[in-house]
Amino acid sequence: MELRDKFGRKISYVRLAITDRCNLRCQYCMPAHGIAIVDRKELLTYKEMYRITRVLSELGVNKVRLTGGEPFVRKDFVNFLESLSFNDKLDEINITTNGALISNHIDKLEALNINAINLSIDSLQKEKFAKITRRDVFDEVYDTFEKLEKSRLKLKLNVVVQSGFNTDEIIDFIELSKTKDIAVRFIEEMPFNGKGQRDMKEEWNFNKIINHVKEHYPIIETLKDKKSSTSRNFKIPNYKGTFGIIPAFTRTICSDCNRIRITATGMFKNCLFDGGVFNVRDFIRNGASDEELKQLFISTVHKKPENGFIAEAARGSNISESMSTIGG
Ligand code: SAM
């Protein structure tokens, strides 16, 4: 038994949101006052998350990304990681985090063989970072960055390219890869800001970002991307690390998508842009067996929309969610 959609795409990767809560208020993600967080009992419990992941892994999912909200704000998250690490069907456990709360956990993450950490950092300038995140935690995040860089964990930086805010730092970020073995990934900004509209001065899409980089470097190597990679990847010759661009909004990566998402309240999503297909939490709490869960996953994945544009058109409501609710 496996998860395959009607376009022949095999699903092997789940992104699981640990919580909808976050300690930051990034301006492209949430309004300043935050989003309406759900009641605690509506969140999946760790036991439920463990079960969902186990059942999915029996259907061929071998890669999990833990995200949120901010996963490290949920109590006992590190213990949950430890339980997950016993699932030997999982080849990779990855975490996306803002890094503000994790510098004390890095040894433990190494001991648990966590594969990669995606650290979100949108500016290398303390004041600008505070403006973007609406919190004064740059020093903590930078400390985490330095510790992760020295650790055995693979490190990717997530930089949301924000028109009028941090586009002047694109080259500074690439320069970090000169001596550091990191992958810097520039993400196109999406309309998931908890406000329902996308107000930007100028759209910094994939083409604009890469053309900007080309103006600064005479030679850029194009790397061969891993199948189903979310980013198109490049390297400046002789630099230790790489950089990439995630066409999150222009959606040119859908044809070999291998991902599904489970939100913090258990909503199953076939696509970042769909409105959610069904609630796994309710299904589990109503007594579903593992076999029933498997059948539900198989039939739902079969209906995965061909791409993010079709998913968005079918959702029937405007996008007013925050990535913190969706699970970034
Ligand atoms: N709190 C964690 C973090 O900051 O990495 C995990 C959750 S966060 C929602 C995951 C990623 O989504 C972050 O890299 C964040 O910058 C990105 N993100 C959030 N809203 C976005 C948007 N509107 N457009 C593009 N990326 C966004």
Rg (C-alpha, Å):
19 Å
Shape: globular
Order of helices and strands: EHEHEHEHHEHEHEEEEEEHHHH
Strand order of the largest sheet: 7-8-9-6-5-4-3-2-1-10-11-12
Bound compounds, please? Answer: S-adenosylmethionine
Give helix % range: 25-40%
Major sheet, described briefly?
12 strands, mixed
Determine the oligomeric state from the structure: single chain
Structural class: alpha/beta
How would you describe what is shown here?
The chain has 11 helices and 12 strands. It is α/β, with parallel strands linked by helices and 328 residues long. The chain starts with 12 loop residues before the first strand and ends with a helix. The protein has helices at 46-58, 77-84, 106-111, 126-133, 138-150, 170-176, 206-216, 280-285, 290-302, 308-314, 323-326, and strands at residues 13-17, 63-67, 92-97, 116-120, 154-161, 183-188, 221-222, 232-235, 242-246, 259-262, 267-269, 278-279. It has a 12-stranded mixed sheet with strand order 7-8-9-6-5-4-3-2-1-10-11-12. S-adenosylmethionine binds next to β3, β5 and α11.
Secondary structure blueprint with pairings:
Elements lengths: L12 E5 L28 H13 L4 E5 L9 H8 L7 E6 L8 H6 L4 E5 L5 H8 L4 H13 L3 E8 L8 H7 L6 E6 L17 H11 L4 E2 L9 E4 L6 E5 L12 E4 L4 E3 L8 E2 H6 L4 H13 L5 H7 L8 H4 L2
Parallel strand pairs: 1-2, 1-10, 2-3, 3-4, 4-5, 5-6, 6-9
Antiparallel strand pairs: 7-8, 8-9, 10-11, 11-12
The structure holds S-adenosylmethionine.
The site of S-adenosylmethionine (SAM) has 21 residues, from β3, β5 and α11.
